[in-house]
């Protein structure tokens, strides 16, 4: 069966076209002349025609059944254009045994076909399952990987669609990616390579020269040495006993500049030459050398401290300027501060040693703290070196980063991908098994089909068709011509008058239509090939009642309704799988589409309409939209109140007024209505509607009426409703327009 039909970009169908979705067994398509019904039937009869290159047809299962189309082209090709008509082969009346063999073969074929089609459905279900798994994987990767790491935007270039993103992840997994890298590291590298304002080379931070000098001074043993005067001097015992060596040393420096013998402390004449000599002998050259050495070491240390402070200020400035790399600036500052505190403490101790040489001072070794600080500086230099390497090889680094990003994303995806791949492998294994089964059943079907054609070819004949058509013609009063076998070919027909002359060119249009339809009704039971009588088929019937009188219209309707009944039956043995009927005749549509309630689900309805010379469709599913031609006019008015072109509004309204007031009601209403309308523009609109409906299209009002612009369409509805109000028929208007029963 056909599932969907798409008609676009041909005849009155624009590039959007129409889609007839989910066709049923029986499908009714109603449409006025010029709405595209014949275009649909022509497409279904010749799908390879380049005129229909944008049209398409989707089948419900694997088999593409034979489509047999009845339309104007069928009538012309079959009856009108040749005096010889191709014969229709059907099964003749042979022995019951042969017919039973054929019937049994058909049953067997049907059984194999159902099994084969069931297997094909299972294959397609598995394929749908695989497609669903593929969609699941694609959507999962997009949501849980791509959208979870939007910061790697540059790396995604070329793979920013769901399908391409998934394909690349799968490609990486097939090539076994390396180790996973923390996304924080990838983000840091990404920001450095892609988000830095400027990526320039950085000079390394130099290590100051005094690294070892400070430690050497701090570790000199003199700081712990007790420095006192010469011990074999008489005054030494007193100094040592009183522990006033440092006090005496300071006093010595005071009295060395005095010229008198007065003691600066007691103001007595005690500073004798002997006392001065003892003091000088006590603070001998060794004492002087050691205190001078202490002063020298201290001065050097103090100078190094000043140099260190300046160096560290420069270091901090350098660190503040390093915006391209992420360094521990605060940690370095804390270390510098701690280091300078050590140096300051040592300075105080040194100053006390200078003042009191006999004091033992303990200096803090700053080397460990300085080593820690310089390790941090070295780490920063290593980062600078790495940064400079990136600057010098930025393209290579970017490629490496992108590779690492994709490898990491692929590794994160692997558990989900492996799970879906396992399900897909299982489905493919099932498809392989089902395909083998399908091929075996299809081969068995082909063998049985060949056997059926061979048996049918032995007992088929064109004569049953001749006899059946002639019998039908006779029953319905067509007695002045009949179908006979051609004298030149036993497998062809001719239409013959009673006097024996060939009648093709002298048949009336109604006769031609009826006989061509009867021919079609027999063709659907057989074929032009004696070996292809059986086989599933789809019927497309386009306006089979053109030029027929009402009696024959009823006959055609009866024949089709009987056909529909057979096709609708559940377990039907009919070879006809589906029917598509197209018509423009409301009465025929109403007659032929009448069905019992239990058969509604197997039927579907469409209406084709045209707006601005473009066809569009309305689907009504299993609800028949055609009640009568009068109801259809109101339906058009309701459906298109906001969309009709002005001329369409006029014609629809005129036909409603003519049918209701003239045909049904026999009203005398024109003058009475016009006299009650005071607005000049409204009166002209009412005149154009009423006079046309009252007198046909020949009244003088048409000559003076000017077609209003399309924007006045709303005014037509106002005047149209006003006419019903003026004539007391507003109830009918409200009923037909499906509005509330009100006069306002």
Walk me through this protein's architecture.
This protein is α/β, with parallel strands linked by helices. Among the domains are: 211 residues, P-loop containing nucleotide triphosphate hydrolases (Rossmann fold), CATH 3.40.50; 145 residues; 54 residues, no CATH class; 107 residues, no CATH class. It is built from 24 helices and 14 strands. The strands form four sheets. The chain has a six-stranded mixed sheet, sandwiched between helices. Strands 2-1-4 form a three-stranded antiparallel sheet, with no helix packed on it. Strands 6-10-9 form a three-stranded antiparallel sheet. It is elongated and about 185 Å long. The relative contact order is 0.12.
Main sheet characteristics: 6 strands, mixed
CATH-defined superfamily of the domain at 26-37 and 60-89 and 459-627:
P-loop containing nucleotide triphosphate hydrolases
Estimate percent helicity. Answer: 55-70%
CATH topology annotation of the domain at 26-37 and 60-89 and 459-627: Rossmann fold
Output mean pLDDT.
79
Strand content: 5-15%
Task: Let me know the number of strands.
Answer: 14
How many helices in DSSP terms?
24
Using the CA coordinates, give the radius of gyration. Answer: 55 Å
Q: Helices and strands: which structural class?
A: alpha/beta
Shape: elongated
Unreliable spans: 695-710
CATH architectural grouping of the domain at 26-37 and 60-89 and 459-627: 3-Layer(aba) Sandwich
Distance between the termini: 52 Å
């Amino acid at each position: 069966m056909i599932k969907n039909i798409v008609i676009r970009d041909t005849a009155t169908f624009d590039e959007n076209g129409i889609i007839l979705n989910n066709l049923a067994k029986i499908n009714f398509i109603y449409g006025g002349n010029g709405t595209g019904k014949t275009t649909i039937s022509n497409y279904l009869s010749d799908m390879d025609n380049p005129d229909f290159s944008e049209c398409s047809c989707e089948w419900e299962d694997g088999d593409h059944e034979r489509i047999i189309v009845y339309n104007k082209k069928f009538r012309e090709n079959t009856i009108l254009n040749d005096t010889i008509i191709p014969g229709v082969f059907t099964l003749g009346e042979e022995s019951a045994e042969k017919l039973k063999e054929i019937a049994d073969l058909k049953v067997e074929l049907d059984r194999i076909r159902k099994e084969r089609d069931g297997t094909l459905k299972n294959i397609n279900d598995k394929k749908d399952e695989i497609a669903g798994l593929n969609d699941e994987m694609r959507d999962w990767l997009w949501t849980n990987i791509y959208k979870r790491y939007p910061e790697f935007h540059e790396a995604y270039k070329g793979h920013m669609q769901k399908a391409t993103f998934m394909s690349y992840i799968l490609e990486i997994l097939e090539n076994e990616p390396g180790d996973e890298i923390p996304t924080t590291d990838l983000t840091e590298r990404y920001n450095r390579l892609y988000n830095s304002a400027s990526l320039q080379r950085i000079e390394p931070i130099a290590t100051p020269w005094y690294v070892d000098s400070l430690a050497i001074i701090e570790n000199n043993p003199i700081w712990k040495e007790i420095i006192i005067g010469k011990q074999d001097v008489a005054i030494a015992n007193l100094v040592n006993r009183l522990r006033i060596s440092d006090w005496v040393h300071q006093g010595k420096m005071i009295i060395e500049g005095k010229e008198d013998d007065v003691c600066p402390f007691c103001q007595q004449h005690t500073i004798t030459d002997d006392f001065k000599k003892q003091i000088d002998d006590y603070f001998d050259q060794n004492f002087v050398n050691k205190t001078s050495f202490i002063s020298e070491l201290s001065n050097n240390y103090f100078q190094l401290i000043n140099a260190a402070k300046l160096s560290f200020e420069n270091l901090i400035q350098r660190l503040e300027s390093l915006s391209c790399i992420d360094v521990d600036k605060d940690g370095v500052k804390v270390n510098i501060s701690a280091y300078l505190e050590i140096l300051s403490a040592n300075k105080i101790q040194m100053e006390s040693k200078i003042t009191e040489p006999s004091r033992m001072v303990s200096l803090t070794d700053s080397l460990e703290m300085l080593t820690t600080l310089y390790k941090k500086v070295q780490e920063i230099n290593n980062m600078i070196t790495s940064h400079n390497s990136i600057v010098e090889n930025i393209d290579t680094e970017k490629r490496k980063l992108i590779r690492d990003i994709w490898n990491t994303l692929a590794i994160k995806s692997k558990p989900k991908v492996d799970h879906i791949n396992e399900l897909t492998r299982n489905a493919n294994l099932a498809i392989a098994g089902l395909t083998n089964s399908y091929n075996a059943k299809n081969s068995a079907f082909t063998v049985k089909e060949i056997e059926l054609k061979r048996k049918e070819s032995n007992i088929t004949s064109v004569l049953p068709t001749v006899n059946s058509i002639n019998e039908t013609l006779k029953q319905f009063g067509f007695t002045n011509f009949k179908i006979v076998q051609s004298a030149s070919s036993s497998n062809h027909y001719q239409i013959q008058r009673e006097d024996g002359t060939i009648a093709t060119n002298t048949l009336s249009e109604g006769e031609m239509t009826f006989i061509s339809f009867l021919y079609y009704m027999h063709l659907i039971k057989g074929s032009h090939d004696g070996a292809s009588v059986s086989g599933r088929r789809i019927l497309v019937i386009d306006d089979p009642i053109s030029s027929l009188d009402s009696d024959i219209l009823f006959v055609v309707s009866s024949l089709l309704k009987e056909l529909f009944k057979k096709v609708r039956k559940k377990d039907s043995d009919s070879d006809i799988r589906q029917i598509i009927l197209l018509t423009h005749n409301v009465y025929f549509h109403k007659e032929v589409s009448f069905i019992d309630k239990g058969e509604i689900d197997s039927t579907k309805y469409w209406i084709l309409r045209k707006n601005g010379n473009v066809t569009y469709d309305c689907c009504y599913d299993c609800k028949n939209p055609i009640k009568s031609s009068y109801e259809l006019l109101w339906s058009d008015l309701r459906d298109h109140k906001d969309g009709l072109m002005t001329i369409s509004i006029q014609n629809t309204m005129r036909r409603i007024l003519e049918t209701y007031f003239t045909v049904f009601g026999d009203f005398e209403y024109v003058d009475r209505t016009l006299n009650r309308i005071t607005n000049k523009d409204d009166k002209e609109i009412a005149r154009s509607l009423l006079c046309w409906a009252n007198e046909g299209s020949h009244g003088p009002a048409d000559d003076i009426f000017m077609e209003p612009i399309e924007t006045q369409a709303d005014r037509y509805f106002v005047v149209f409703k006003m006419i019903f109000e003026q004539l007391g028929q507003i109830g009918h208007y409200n009923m037909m327009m499906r509005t509330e029963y009100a006069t306002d």
